[in-house]
Amino acid sequence: SVAVLGGSAAMMLFRCLRIREALAALDSAVLLLLAAAIPLGLAMERTGMAATLAESILGLAQDHGPVVLISVLYLITSVLTAFLTNTATAALLVPIVLQVAVTSGYDPKPMLIAVMFGASASFVTPIGYQTNLLVMGPGGYLFRDYLKIGLFLNLLLWIAATVLIPVFWPLGGAM
Known about the structure:
- The protein is mostly helical and 175 residues long.
- 78% of the residues lie in helices and 0% in strands.
- It has 9 helices and no strands.
- The protein has helices spanning 2-13, 19-25, 28-47, 49-61, 66-81, 86-104, 108-120, 130-139, 143-168.
- The longest helix is centred in the C-terminal third of the chain and has 26 residues, at 143-168.
- The termini are far apart.
């Protein structure tokens, strides 16, 4: 983020980019979504909703072990990312995942890795990631193109994450 801000400032200083152009390039909808998602995540944690959702997630995976827990967290994140931005999804789910870790006694790192990868796997819709939207028009893509190719990619990455995250980042503890 420091490099991006420094590069942006340098571009404006050397007049490669005008301030008006930089401001016009900001996507207000994305900024508003992010601005709302971060306080919403904090509110979920403070009101106890994160704990309630964490208990629901644990209810789904409790009897099946840590690999299923990682799989469920990844899947929830991936599905939400299709409808929100990846950053907003991560901001919403981090307090829930931290509560899942506290409740289950597992290390939160592998669960956060599942959220990170799940939020990054936004291929099913053009909504989940700004680059998808940027290339949609110029590339002549339709919404269904993302669905056809993205669904396969998301399923493949879900399987890979389910298998590989517990290998590289063991959960430790017991449920």
